[in-house]
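thoughts on these tokens:
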Amino acid sequence: MTHPWFQGDRPPRVLAHRGLVTTDAERSGIVENSFAAVAAAHSAGARYVESDCHRTADGVVVLFHDDDLSRVTGDPRKIADVTVRELEHLMAGRGGLITLAQALTSFPTVRFNLDVKAADAASAVGTAIAPFADRVLVTSFSDERRRAALSAARAVSEASGHSIRPATSGGRSTIARVLAAVSARSDRLVARALAGVDALQVPERQGRLRVVTPRLVAAAHRHGVEVHVWTVNAPDDMVRLVVEMGVDGIVTDRADVALAALR
């Protein structure tokens, strides 16, 4: 049965990468993964927002990509070493901090694609998303972190009598096994590698390796798994990947452009 995260919309899906920061917004100081960036993606018509999760020193899960604050705020400290109040102050002029709880409650029609960036955030992410499992997809480069978040969500759901789990996309080790199985032309190994996975979220290329191929997309589709490609910002590439390659979703910094290109 298709997970609710995928229901109601037909591919191609546009996933707003860390929200939406237009050129004008960037000039005014708005940054990625801020409350304003998520609101802008929602306002532009994006149904899906891709974001990242870290945990502050006082245990609050926040939407933030890097493990430190230097690139976004100029502060060299790690997110794990600052409190949510300190982070709110640092983000005040940059579009505003958004916690995971705020994201899920403030944007009730948005479906979130959440990348667990830190091991110490996995359990807290799972606990927070459990009541919203119908509109959350959990991923991570680390399959261990991804599974830890899913396990925590499952524990909360079972305790409260809910049956819906979050959707999930495979991490690096899962993707490596899928690619090896596709290369070996073994549908049995593909099925084994994709067990429990709803989507593959991958770059089109990794160095010299072409990741996204018609064979990969076809293999995933045979087992009811979608393929989403990141991070695609050129309209011609968006259209090519969807029309020629048959991918199901585009993760992009310019959700507004993608929504227009893929109509």
Residues 114 and 138 are 5 Å apart (CA to CA).
